Amino acid sequence: MSKAGFWNRAFHLYYDGFRQMTLGRTLWIIIAIKLFIMFAILKVFFFPNFIKTHTEKGTEAEFVSNELIQRSEP
Questions:
Q1: DSSP the chain
Q2: For residue range 25-39, what is the model confidence (pLDDT) as tens digits?
Q3: What pLDDT score does 48 carry?
Q4: Which of 50, 34, 53, 52 is nearest to 42 (CA)?
Q5: pTM, to two decimals
Q6: 33-70 b/e with 16+ CB inside 10 Å = b?
Q7: How far is the CA of 25 from the CAs of 5, 9, 22, 40, 55, in angstroms?
């Protein structure tokens, strides 16, 4: 069995499966919307770039190093 044959069969398996879906297509759309909300919208509002706000350009590595050293000391 060649690799092209395997990949071709795998592609057609998924292609035919998604093409014949009825309820599954709706569920995949809901999953895609939820992922977009989690990664695009929530990241912007709830997870700001902490390092960028506390350092100047080019000193990020030094900031992280100092923070790791300070947190490891009792």
A1: --HHHHHHHHHHHHHHHHHT-SHHHHHHHHHHHHHHIIIIIHHHHH---HHHHHS-TT-HHHHHHHHHHHHH--
A2: 888 889 999 999 888
A3: 75
A4: 34
A5: 0.46
A6: eeeeeeeeeeeeeeeeeeeeeeeeeeeeeeeeeeeeee
A7: 27, 21, 6, 22, 45
CB 62 within 8 A of CB 51: no
Q: What is the pLDDT of residue 45?
A: 81
Q: Which amino acid is at 59?
A: T
